[in-house]
Sequence to fold (189 residues):
Amino acid sequence: MMKYLPCGISVREAMTLSPVICGPELSVKDAAKLMIKNHVGSLLIAKEDSKDKKLLGIMTEKDILKKLITKGKDPAKVYVRNIMTKNPMVIGKDADIIEALKLMVQNDFRRIPVIEGDKLIGLITEKDIMRIEPHVVECLITKKKIKEINRKPIKVKEVQGMCEECGNFSEELVDKSGMFVCHDCRYSK
Fold:
């Protein structure tokens, strides 16, 4: 597991305070229009009449493509509740933004809902973190490179970047069980 050094900036300080929220009964067609109108790639799902904003799920553009479009379903006839990710991974407002980034990298997310107790209070995204800590761009670029390398028919044996196990920069990362690690971590248990 990748080690990280906290940067001292909390999720609360970097998060989007007013994420776009919709109810589970909205059609996916109307939800997609809402996403386009607000220039966002996801919607947080909460009960519309709830003052407490209890998080029910999240719906991303990937959910629309994978669960609806590729299956030939009509977005006007399918509801958000049918394709949203229920009980998504969340993070607390006092967590360090580097912890949030670590969760994003490990789980291939670009965003994580932020909670206080069980109340939805915001959304932290890769862009929010990059705005505060621009040096993390290297970590995200490495993640994208690794993902692209794994899709190529000819495998590249080595790539530069941050070791996913120890967190150190290495000129020669290698694949170890789906993680890119430095030479030292390659042979560790």
About this structure: The helical segments are 11-14, 28-38, 61-67, 80-83, 97-107, 126-132, 137-151, 183-186.
